[in-house]
Amino acid sequence: MIKTLHKMGIKSNHMYVAGLCSVGLAFASWFASKQTEHAGLDRADRWGIFIGEWAPTFFAMGVALRIEETHRELEESEMESFGKSQDMRSRTHAGV
């Protein structure tokens, strides 16, 4: 799933922002429910907790995407280094 998200262009920073927005939205929904609904504080708490539970998921996905990004960067740098070493060897063997 993480590789698919990475291929779709979703970056770790997107997930971190989504996590922060979730925290803000949890507070906003709690406050709005507390002010507008007559169900009481219990209902407002449930709304805040429900939306607030999304934040850890977004942050965890951000960490997983950061690992994927780092893994890809390391693979690319290793391939570049390998290509350069192969090029140097071919030049040495060709007498260049």
Fold and architecture overview:
With 96 residues, the protein is mainly alpha-helical. It has one domain (2-94). It contains four helices and no strands. The protein has helices spanning 2-7, 12-36, 41-52, 54-94. The longest helix is centred in the C-terminal third of the chain and has 41 residues, at 54-94. The model has no long low-confidence stretch (mean pLDDT 82).
Low-confidence stretches: none
Estimate the strand proportion: under 5%
Largest sheet: none
Instruction: Write down the secondary-structure element order.
Output: HHHH
Indicate the mean pLDDT: 82
Which structural class do you get from the secondary structure elements? mainly alpha
Number of strands: 0
Shape: rod-shaped
- Radius of gyration over all CA atoms, rounded: 24 Å
Our count of helices gives 4
The N- to C-terminal Cα distance equals: 47 Å
Count of all domains = 1
- Helical percent range? over 70%
Keywords: Membrane, Transmembrane, Transmembrane helix
Protein name: DUF2637 domain-containing protein
Organism: Nonomuraea bangladeshensis
